[in-house]
Amino acid sequence: MGKVTGFMEYQREVPTEIEPLERIKHWQEFGIPMQEENLQQQAARCMDCGTPFCHVGQLLSGMTTGCPLHNLIPEWNDQVFHGRWREALKRMHKTNNFPEFTGRVCPAPCEGSCTVGLNGSPVTIKNIEKAIVDRGFAEGWIVPEPPMMRTGKKVAVVGSGPAGLACAAQLNKAGHQVTVYERADRIGGLLMYGIPNMKLDKAVVQRRVDLLTAEGITFVTGTEVGKDIVYSELKAAFDATVLCGGATQARDLIVEGRQLQGIHQAMDFLTQNTKSLLDSELQDGLYLSAKDKDVIVIGGGDTGTDCVATAIRHGCRSVKQLEIMPELPMERQPSNAWPEWPKVLKVDYGQQEATRLYEHDPRRYLVSTKRFIGDEHGQVKALLTVQIEWKVDDQGRLVPQEVPGSEEIIPGQMVFLAMGFTGPEAHLLKQCGVEQDERSNVKADFGQQATNVEGIFTAGDMHRGQSLVVWAIHEGRQAAHEVDLYLMGSTELS
User: Which residue, 116, 109, 134, is CA-closest to 2?
Assistant: First the structure.
């Protein structure tokens, strides 16, 4: 593909970014687009590898290998290399409804399994993807494409995250009348409120929502299915229902002092901040401010990093990120061979900013919180932590054990719990009568998406648990395929 020797001639090059101490002054995206010539050179690095692993979308060792959307990556890299950007966009949209989202927030498992990365640096797939779709919008190539005919069938989609939006887009393409219900005041789910604006500009999300609206999808906000509308009403009004409500039950940390003020779930912090930012540029004060506080983030994943970056933009006095797992190595280990997802140390944007601002990485590894310490007013003021080490117990399981004498008190007047999610909220599922699996997720066969209740399907995190945006879009598309088949007896949706 592309230039046959490109992967030998050109080195991996990623876009430059606004310097950390400058970008923390605002809430805008901070990547600087690359010049077309540089992008074509990067696309030329996509080699004619024969069997590309970048789009296999499978689980190896419990981790995602390649793109679950099965994006035609070598094909659109070839188109970019030859300057055929509009053709590249067409190839991209065949498998991915929202490349402007995945090109910004996906961790790019495609790059982890890139063949060039076997003995060198992988192709910059994610950046090329973003460049293609951004150019498509800039050139006016992406316009509403409502269906030519309507089937007369009606489908309700519950939840407007990436799974719900992808499902709605595909079903609408098939000619069904789709209504998407969202309990928040804006459409987008975690794309809108769970990811900070500097990582995914909300105008980008709204642009796609406006496009879907113009194509004929009806969006209903401020309406929680199961409370504001009960399932029996949906059943009477629609021919099928797709549950895409996400895995929104946050994991808690039940230790002494948890009731103290100043301890919050990370998603509450991020959601309130983005809503206030969109509503009033933070002038309404309706958010959790970290200004002049020592902030502790418990959790080392992407959500924890988003909390670090958000707290810095508030003007926090200090920020620390506590992680119970050990620090990852700088390079792949023999036990983590290609094409598995590379378990290597990543310095994300939040850590970059904290390191520049406070002159040290905010992360502390192998740390467990034993107790929250409060002041006389019931406000958290510190954490009692302990170092741990992972050891194998008598049943062969890795378990954390405290290191004697390693207790430490860490000052903190604001604590954010970013420890992931345990599954979906149950009240709607009980009302519908759908079965849940042992992890509390909606029970449905992967690829078929049908629940035990006739006419109810599911997709995304509500079905598979907390996962990647590409899995959500994949499942949304798969659910649409199955719903169309259920309603019409056949389908042309892929």
Answer: 116
